[in-house]
Amino acid sequence: MATENMKLRVKTGEKDGKNFWDDCGVVFINRNPAGDITSIQVRHNMFPGVDMVAFPKRADDQQ
């Protein structure tokens, strides 16, 4: 089973044509061997200690 991790970033400002970003969380996408998404969890720094899910986490998901 594969797990993908993606950073959540928010634009915090712009100066002289340069953008500034803040890492604000992580998205974990769990897939089965066939490549189907089995669950998605989101951790965000505005909600420390809270796992938000798009699909319920399964016992066999890594992470």
Brief sketch in words of this structure:
This protein has strands spanning 2-15, 18-31, 37-44, 52-55.
Structural commentary:
The protein has 63 residues and is mainly β. The chain has one domain (2-54). The chain is built from no helices and four strands. It has strands at residues 2-15, 18-31, 37-44, 52-55. It has a four-stranded antiparallel beta sheet, with no helix packed on it. Strand 1 (2-15) and strand 2 (18-31) form a beta hairpin.
What proportion strand? over 45%
Biggest β-sheet strands, sense, barrel:
4 strands, antiparallel
Overall SS class: mainly beta
Number of contiguous helices: 0
Across the major sheet, the strand order is: 1-2-3-4
- Give average pLDDT, whole number: 83
Cα distance spanning the termini: 11 Å
Number of strand elements:
4
